[in-house]
Model the fold of this input.
Amino acid sequence: MDSIEAVRLLRERLSDEPVVASLGTPAFLLYSAGDRPLNFYMWAAMGMASSVGLGLAIAQPSRRVVVLDGDGAALMNLGGMVTVGWRAPPNLVWMVLENGVFLETGGQPIATSERADLVAIARGAGLLNVASADNPADLGALLDHALAEPGPSLVVARVGPDASRDLPPLDPVRLKHRFMEELSRTGHGHESSP
Amino acid sequence: MASPNADGIPQTSWWEIVYESLKAHEVRLVAHVPDQVLAPLVREIEADPFFEVVRLTREEEGVGVLSGGYLGGLRGALLMQSSGLGNCFNALGGLPLAYQIPFLIVISQRGRLGEFNPSQVPMGRATPRLLEAIGIETVSLEHQAELAEQVDQAARTCFATSGPVALIISTLLSGGKRG
Done:
C-alpha cells in the first residue's frame, strides 16, 4: 500500500486526538493528508516523536494521543520503546510507517528491510495491540482496534517508498502555539491531579 | 528530614530545597535516569503523588517526554548525571530550543572537584560550556545559603521566557559520588 493511503486511513479516523509526527516523511504525509491544528509536526530530533507522544499522553490522560513515526525513527529510539512499554500509557497509539529505507536521505536501506522485526521488538518491549498490515482493509481494522482499546498500542503499516513534498509551515514556534491553543480549546486538561 | 550541621543546627538538605521548589512552581512531570547524588531527590518525588514520573532508558528520551508533557499542559524537569547530558544535545536543539518549550534540567555534576574516575572528567568538565554553546541558561548550585533563591529564580526564568534552564548540582553542594 502507498504510505499516503496509510496516513489517510489514520487521518479520517481522527477527531480530537493530537498527533505527533516524526520529521521528514511522516510529517510531510500527515500534512498532505490534511492539516489540522492538533497535528504537531517535528522538524528535527529524529527518534523523539514517540517520547514526545509519551509525555503528551501522560499530560492528556483523557484522550488518545497518536504518534506517527517512521521505521528509521523508531529504530533510532528503541530505548524509548522500552520506556513506553514500562510506563504503559493506556491512551497512546503509535503508528509506524515501515518502508525499510531512509527515504529523505536517498532511500538507503535500514535494518527493517531485512532482519529487524518491529512487531516482535514492540511486543518484547511490552506494547499492546501490536500488529502489522500491508493493505488498507487490514490497516483500517488495526487502527480502529488501537484507537478503541487500552494501549500503549503499536501498529505497523507496511508501505511503499512513496514520499510527499508537501511541507508543513517551517515555523516551530507557531506550530507549538497553534497546537497548544487547540488542545486547550478542545478541553481535557491534565486530570490525574490528586 | 532536616539534619544537624557541624554546629548542631538543623539544616535542610539540598534535595529538599529542590523538591519544594519544583512543587512550588507546579513542576509535575519528572523524567530521570538514576544517579547516586540525585537518588534522595528522586525517592522523595516518586513517593509523592503530586508528581508524574517517567523512568527513562536513556537521557535523550527525557527531552522528548518533557516537551510533550509541556505541550499537553504539564511543566517538567529532567534529572540526570552530567554524562547523560551528552546524550541529549540533538534533541535539545530540535525540540525545546527550536520550539521554545521550557523545562528544568537538573544535572548531577561529575568530573569536577572530588572526582575519582578519570573517564568522567572530559564530559563533566565540558558540561557548562556545552550548555552555553547551545544557548541554555545554566546555574551552578554550590552553596546552601543561596540555593533556594537560585532554584526559585531559575524556575521563574525558565517558564517565563519559554526556554530550558539547567541547574548543575556541584559536588561542593552534594558531596559528589564517592568511589
Observations:
- Chain A has one domain: 3-184.
